[in-house]
Amino acid sequence: MAGDTSPLEIRKVGLIGFGEAGRLLGDGLVKAGLLVTAYDIKIETPQGWALMARSTDEVGVLLSDMPAQAVKGCDLVISAVTASSAAAVAEQVGPMLAPGQIFLDINSVSPATKAHDRNAVERGGATYIEAAVMAPVPPYGLRVPMLLGGAKAQAVSEALNAIGLRTRAVSTDVGVASAIKMCRSVMIKGLEALTVECLTAARRYGAEREVLESLAETFPGMGWTDRQPHYLVSRVAEHGRRRAEEMREVADTLLDVKVDPVMARATATVQDAFVDLMEKKGVAYPKDHAFDWTTFVDQMHPDRD
User: Fold this and answer.
1) What's this model's pTM, rounded to 2 decimal places?
2) Does position 305 have pLDDT exceeding 70, yes or no?
């Protein structure tokens, strides 16, 4: 890794977490010509190891059986785990890192959690950078927009953009980028939850067409009579559990500045409840065909007249 006065160079990347986001980033980084290693906690079961090995092999990422192996010699380490695991990963991996290594925390957690993670990582001299991922990783992949924060955010942003990422440094302080993400999520995830509640009820009353036409008239250009309702409901159906977890982090973010997170908590409840009902009814998110919210809601409520 080059010194502070020279441009940073990134040649080898270690991924901690190889779920949807980790896989897409790993695929893009390999295609950009970088050496990529990965570790995921799922490998700790025989079935999980086979699944992860197949997934990493498909995109040319080298699977490691321990976090220390995954991060050894890496210029950049990316933490892409669940919100509830982010702090534990920083505590575990931080002491494994050496001065000059960059730890990029892309997890959707509160500014306070990011500050905790920074302290855990920087005790040993590594560079901590918070990243706020501002859109779903698919379909962007490596080009998903990210906001960065940290003492060296600008230099790291330039290095990341040089290998194909799309990042922008917004602050030298850790927490600002995450605050942007968390506050935005009140609106984005809240809109998803409102759509689920609104349209499920409208569908059961047979009033969905009129409701959507009224929304389109009140909020023109949002696509209420086109793909928008399908998209918003699909986000909950596919990622509701993870989004509920993020909204609990959002609630913590608001509480830290003495804002009562009434809507954030309600959104988490709706997101979780939707997935709970899917599991109860045995309804799975369709991965092999386009999502249609009316068909999906009818499957979850087969007693609709």
Assistant:
1) 0.89
2) no
